[in-house]
Amino acid sequence: MVAGCPADGAAASARRRIGAGLIAVAAALPAWAQAPAPAAAQAPVPAAAQSDGTAPAPELKPLGGDRYQIGRIVVDKAARHFTVPGRVHALGEPLEYLATAPGGMKAYEALFELDARGTAFNLACILIGLERRPGATPWEGREPGRRIDGMRVRLTLAWGQGALRKEVPAARALLNDDASVEADKVEWVYIGAPASDLHGRFMAEETGTLIGFIHDANSIIESATPIGIGAYGSVRGHAMLPPKGSPVELIVEALGSGR
Fold first, then answer.
1. Which residues contact 18 (CB under 8 A, 6 or more apart)?
2. Which of 49, 118, 231, 241 has its Cβ near the most Cβ atoms within 10 Å?
3. What phi, psi does 182 have (nearest 5°)?
4. Quick one: how far is CA 103 from the chain centroid?
5. pTM over 0.85, yes/no
6. How far apart, in whole angstroms, are the C-alpha atoms of residue 256 and residue 189?
7. At what angle do helices 118-127 and 8-28 cross, to 10 degrees?
């Protein structure tokens, strides 16, 4: 229901538009990612599946103008991007993930902790037009180090307020000066946690793994080419970042299909 519209006709039109959007989103989600919506939005909690192994369905709140809120994620569907707040986490430690959910299994190797669970983060990806490419190379049996096919995304990291606000490509924030990887050559692609196909439940929800760069099949987004393979500890986060625990914001923007 949409409350507060000035006229019955406008309200009905708005309800039809939002309802159609919700139906489209539900159709796009795999069966194991669907479940009855909670009565009210909840604060992020450690990533975990429900007792029956299914992922809890996130609440989708319309904000108007083709904008939606999913927990603390704000989606601009028309502009094809969303933002999610979080904090600096394992800065200076050996890293294999850009970001995990609170309490994620790989949080100790994640540069950022984001205030989003796997299912909510994936729903935001779907709303901005990201989807797994049909006919993509099957994950199982992939040659190590092989480039991942997928729809490309731009990841931007921001922190600070007003005149002190700073925005940098996420790869720049991730890569310390001696990481031996050029940040401007890093590409990010949507993969949608393909491990879920084998397990029958959404593994990014269960593991809390959101964005990785070592080609983890539980991730929702990965670097197209793996980073730091065979050189554990070479990626530790850039010194430009604020201290551990500092608030940050991740901006995810859909760019189109990968190669």
1. 2, 62
2. 118
3. -85, 120
4. 15
5. no
6. 9
7. 110
